[in-house]
Write a structure and sequence with these properties.
single chain; two-stranded antiparallel ribbon; mainly alpha
Length: 149
């Protein structure tokens, strides 16, 4: 079990560092345009699709509390025992986006899809959050029932 916590922390740290490294490239001025996908700097003051942007500076404090509540329940309910890697991915990505709110007053986004329609601008951490949630769901609803049979 102790190794699971170590792997969780290492995973969270690696995801955090990768995401912040990519973001620093865009904050430093990198920009690339194409007809369908552009890599350009955007600051998102809300959460997904700019929801809750009206909370302003209070959003980062709400997210900080929610991340700590998430970690508390993952430890309390034993999720780190089975889900230490996706939990590390989720927490590392969430903390990276939260860090942006404290440093830049908004999340650094940079992948802009505009091929046929404009999609929300996103970043590596957003993709990792989706990946981790997908991992949780696949394990919980598809793999776990097969293992328990």
């Amino acid at each position: 079990m102790k190794n699971n916590y170590v792997i969780f922390l290492i995973t969270a740290f690696v995801i955090f560092i990768i995401d912040q490294s990519i973001k620093s490239i865009f904050v430093g001025g990198f920009d690339w345009q194409s007809s369908c996908i552009s890599l350009e700097l955007h600051y998102n003051n809300g959460v997904a699709f700019s929801m809750l942007a009206f909370l302003g500076e209070n959003l980062k404090w709400l997210q900080l509390v929610l991340i700590f509540v998430l970690i508390f329940f993952m430890i309390k309910d034993g999720y780190l025992k089975s889900y230490f890697i996706p939990a590390g991915i989720l927490v590392g990505a969430a903390l990276s986006n939260l860090s942006d709110r404290f440093v830049y007053s908004g999340v650094v986004d940079y992948v802009a899809w505009h091929c046929g329609f404009d999609f929300a601008v996103f970043n590596f951490a957003d993709v990792m959050i989706d990946f981790a949630i997908g991992w949780f769901l696949i394990y919980e609803f598809w793999l776990k029932p097969k293992i328990e049979k």
